[in-house]
Structure formats: structure tokens, C-alpha cells
Amino acid sequence: MRILFFLLFLVHYNCFTQNFISKTGEITFFSYAPIEDIKAVNKNVSAAFNSQTNEIVFKLDIINFQFRKKLMQEHFNENYLESDIFPTSTFVGKVYNNDSLSNVKGLLTIHGVTKEIIAFGTFNILDNSIKLSSSFKIKLEDFNVEIPKIVMYKIAEEILVDIDMTLLKIL
Amino acid sequence: MRFKLIFILSFLFSNLSFSQEDLFDLISNNESTIYPEFFFKGTKIINSQSVEIPSEGVLQFMIQHRFGTLNSGFYNLFGLDNSQVRIGFDYGLNKWLSIGLGRSSSLKAIDSNLKFRLARQCSGSVNFPFTLVFNTSVALKQFRFSEINKPNFIFLDNLSFTNQLLIARKLNRKFSFQLTPSLLHYNILPINQTFHDQFSIGYGGRYKLNNRLSVNFESFYQLNSDNNINQLSFGLDIETGGHVFQLHVTNSPYMIDRAFIHETYDSWFEGDIFFGFNISRVFTLQEK
User: Fold this and answer.
1) Residue-wise pLDDT tens digits, B76-110
2) Is the pTM of this model over 0.95?
3) Touching check for B282 and chain A: CB below 8 Å?
4) d(C-alpha B116, C-alpha B135), whole Å
5) Which of A46, A108, A160, B246 has the fewest Cβ atoms within 10 Å of its own Cβ atom?
6) Nearest C-alpha of chain B: how many angstroms from A166?
7) Cα B213 to Cα A133: distance, rounded to the nearest angstrom
């Protein structure tokens, strides 16, 4: 009986509790404004997915966003995202799979403000890895990021966020 | 019956075995090190160098003004009639080294400096309490070409050298403090001075009022001075998009190291206060 119990446990553990993680995902954001287009990329995004519950989490350090211009990076950290007070951004959600297009629904936290979002994208589960990509828009005012009037034409109100990463299976 | 129960139990068990917290645990990294950045808004606190250096591939253009003394009366529009100007460029050669070149109208001096960042303040898996920057500069007092032919002309006489170790700590997100032990060497002494090598300890700081405004102060305590006065300055930094405006009041009209540290003869108590400003603008020459 004990063996049976153990076997069942093992079977369940292997079948259902599979975790996929990555620490080198890429998130890029774009701001298209009349005067200036701004782009920044973070190549150290972490994510973990549990195939049993379909739960997915993302985490990144704001300071790891790289801009082409160093001054933009300074203002981004110092004046807008205040990365010394709010060093990380996280997402906690669930993946809903359809045949062609998946979607993810959950809570996104940026600049200390949490908001529910839904994003669409691709979510391909392979044998040992998951490839996911998504693109969605967020509004700066939803996350209490204040843009002074003087730079209104340089920074867009809506920011386009692109995610592209491959999660690997762990035991 | 028993089998069924175990089956259900084990199923429940595997279902409950993971939550979102556990998922975050899988990707947590405890080995990260935090480097505080942006100790000061500008590469100068007021007159003297701060631990900030221009980023790699960034050229900073700085224009500095010092007007006359505030107590010079309405006839001089409280000093605005007399202005001294320094035009300077600083360029970040890489992450830890910058080079600067400037020219002041007061004393007709050309100055050049190198700033090396030796260490950065950090906490986490690596700990270090201070950011250390070494600044070395040379100033040349300009001369006319006709002077070169004079028999007693020696080019080296016109030089003075400064070596400084800048030790700064960002205590919290608003307050940064800097200590600046300095050694200054004159090749030929100006009037009123008796020491070729002069030692001083500078100290300064900034307090951020909000994301775009900060108040600064700066002073130099002289260890072997003659009859000159310690420089003391207060400033307000205003940051707009690409510019930093630094407005200040100081008792030194000069903008090169030797003069504002060791050649200050004006006293705050007598109202010999100079209004001045620095405006800096950065240009990204080399994008990543």
C-alpha cells in the first residue's frame, strides 16, 4: 500500500507539477511620440511557469533597462520610474491556451502600482521548453508615472511592451 | 475504498504543492549587488568636481558665469555688470574615465582634467561604503606670444596642478555627501602666497527637494593657508530635460581649482558675495 501511495505521488508529481523557468528573457518597450521615439530593452527578465496550475510569474529589475542614450536611462530611473524606491516590476497571472492565440490575465505591478491586465500572444509548450511572446500596451498614468508638460511631445502616454522569451523545464 | 481515498488524497497533494510564491522562489536571485547612482545632478557640486563623470560616449558642454559682488551697488547692478565666464567640455572616454578642457576669462586660464572612478559604493553580495574618484588637473595661465621672447620667460612657470581624491557616499535617495582631500601645487606663487604646495579638505553635499530640484553646499578647509579665506558656496540645481541649471552664491569669483580653493579673499560677512550659475548640456556622441 505504501508503495502504491509513493508511486501515485511520483506519477502525479511528474505528470502535473512541471515548472519552466528563465532568467534571460527579453522585454522591450517603445514610446512613439511626435518628437522622439524611445526604445529600451531589458535582457535579464525572469519568469516561471507551472504547467499544472497554468500560473505564470514575471519579475524584472527596472535598473536593467538599457537605453541608447545614457541620459534617458538616468531620467527613466531617477525621475519617472524611481527605481531606488520601486526597484522591481512583477506580473502574476494565469495562461489561458487556445489553439492559435493564447492569452494571459493577471496583475502587473510597476512603480508600486498594481493593475489587472490581459495580454495576447503565442505560448508554445514543447517537450522541454516553452516559447512565449506577447505584445501589449500600458498607460503611464495608470501606474502613477508623471510626465511633465514640457516633455509631453517626447514621451508617449501609451507604451508598447514586447515580451520574447524561452522557458526551460526544471525538475 | 482505501485505495480510492489515497488516490484522491495524493491528487489533492500534488494540486496544492505549488503556489505563486513558490514560482517567485524559483527565479529569485540573492546574489545581486545594488550600486547607488546619481549622487549629484552635475559633474560639479558648485565650483569643485563631484564624483559624477559623463557617461561613456557623452560630451558635456558647460558654461559657467560668476558676476560681481552683490554689495557693489546699483551702479554695477549688484554685480551683474562684471561677469567672468568659463567654457568647458567634458567627455566620457569609458565607464570610469573622463577628460575635460576649459577656459576661464578670470585669470585667463586654460585648464584640463582627468577623472578616474576607482570604486563605486555598493551593497548586497559585495559591500563598499564609498564611491572614490581621483581627479587630477592642470591649469595654464595664458600669456601673449610677445612674452615668449622675453629672457626670463619659462613656460612651466604658468602651470599649477591639482590632485584630489573625491570620497562620496549617498546616504539615502535625497542626501549625498562628499569629502575632497586636495593637494595643489603652484610652479610660481601668486601674490600673497608663501607655500608652493597647499593642502585642503573640501566637503560638500546635496539634498534633493524633489526629482528635479536639489540644494547644494560646498566649502574647502585650508590646512596651510596664508591670509586667504575658506571658500563657501550654496547652490540650487534645477534639472530640465537635457540641461542642468546650477544657480549659486559663493564668495569666490573664480572657476579653476587653484583660485577658488586658495585665492579667495572675499568674505561672506562683509557682503562680498558673488552670484553665479553653471549650465550644462549633454550630447550623446556615441550611442550604444
Assistant:
1) 888 888 889 999 999 999 999 999 999 999 889 99
2) no
3) yes
4) 6
5) A160
6) 14
7) 40
